[in-house]
Amino acid sequence: MKHDLLRLAATLQDLTDEILGILLLDSEAWKEGLLPSLLDAYEEAQRELRVLVHDDAEVALPGPENEKARATIQRALLGELPVDLMLSEGHGRESFEFSDSEVEAVAQDFLSWYSHYDYARAKLGGASLVLAAGALPEEASGFVGEILECYAFQRYVAVYALARVAMEATLRAVYVREGLANPDSDASRRVRERIESSADLDKGKRKGLLSRSAYARRSGSELSDLTLDDFSPRLFQMIQRLCFLDAYAAATVASGFSGREPLLGVLERIRQRGNSILHGNRTADRESARAMMRDLIRALHVVHEVSARDAR
Prior knowledge:
Helix content is 69%, strand content 4%.
């Protein structure tokens, strides 16, 4: 592939120089029909490049000697070479399209390992999780659709990552609605008091759940001046603080055939699994991705129910 990439980079750069030269300096060449033929060649090189790399998320072209070629390939794939910009602005041409045969060749490659039956089975299996859970928070609805699509197309790492994002987006919205973003609210005061008095937390963990106010930082005072006033709490802090509120502390999530487990434990499991994927410490497969989806959807359903009940 390296040889082909270098060849295409040189071709695209040469054609770019020729096309720009004609546009800027030589109006006669336009009249003689040279420009259309150069644009045809340019579009053919662009199509060849995309077909070459279509199945590779990462393409290596290392070495300082290839710096110019790398820049050309990168800009070409992003549609940012000068000729691409010219075509997008409608200089007498439409942006290039792939032929039916080129599309069919890539489609056959896709169908060699995947089929519409695989997609349908995965979608039906994922949809059953959503339907079984019931209502989900508004903040999560868009993410859940994306997660189901990733699961259907066997992008299991993406399922993990998006599940964590969906949970954080939801909990941040709930955190604000419950008043915990306001350090002077009754909810913040109750949570702070419970964290300080909790027998299950040592001093270090209590400090981890509270943030030191500006006054406390200046005065050097200890735990009594720690508050919930951090501008953007970490996901860990939001989970723990929410679950110091009575309604969330008492909430449980369906587990197994007839069991229940605390909401706090499920939220923490989702957070930790998501972190392990993001940090490269975990692999993902079909079963683990489905378990991640199941935990997420059930937990968010419970969060929705508790939040809606509190709002009433």
